[in-house]
Amino acid sequence: MKLIDFDGLFEKKIRDYMQKHAGRYTEEAWEEKIPVLYARFGDTYVKAAGNTPRGYYAAMDDETLAATLSAHVAHGVPVSDFLRREAEKRGCTPALLSLMQGDNEDAAALAVELSQGDSAAFPAYFALIRRGVGEDTVNRIAEFLCADADEAAEGALACYRDGVQPALMLEVLSHVRNRDERIFTALMQAFRTSDDLCTSARDLACYGDERALPALLEALDREDIDFLEFREIKCAVETLGGRYERERDFSDDPYYEKVQAQSQELPDFTGDPEAKR
Known about the structure:
- By secondary structure, this protein is an all-alpha fold.
- Helices cover 65% and strands 0% of the residues.
- The chain is built from 16 helices and no strands.
């Protein structure tokens, strides 16, 4: 396959164009015009490709397109928007799986992005998480899994049982809408044993099972929780339809003092501006 740096070709053309039209447009006008010219370039015949940039990639089958992506990353040739958009438009997840399963983490990250959360890629997503890929890739995978959590539930439960990214797996599981006793048990156990009560409370609120209310209300009475924990747990209680009436004094809590100080620094947007004149 021939690797063509379409972005590099466009940059050369745009430099020449800008020199030819120097002084004709403001900087802001150029910022608006360049994306339009780039889109037009996608339908411009390029001799080196024997096709337009869009046509060059559209002529490839899925496997060749994925191999081209991989080669671009491996050889440090910029991946143009035309190549990305063609892969996204195709929904060629089966062909992208080979990139996710390969050793090149940059290629795997790109394949994850281009798979756009296709559930067919979920086994590969979980394999990447187990493999220990970079934080950005893991976070992007988590977004996709949370968006289709019911489909991801079994994989997330398996990772959680194996101790793989447990906090992240609980976040995914908290988005599952089909009720599952295994998930509720895991979320409750995490809340009762967690060092991060705020996150655990948010997970319970997100899952939406009212059976969590007694444990949440009991936690609100604990003397060892700080103001931020109290506020997050109380929010979870209210989200699940409960109420907490007891007054708690956090005036000596450093988090409370910090929140109060920040709130006092905010300008007053609620008053009548005419009354202040």
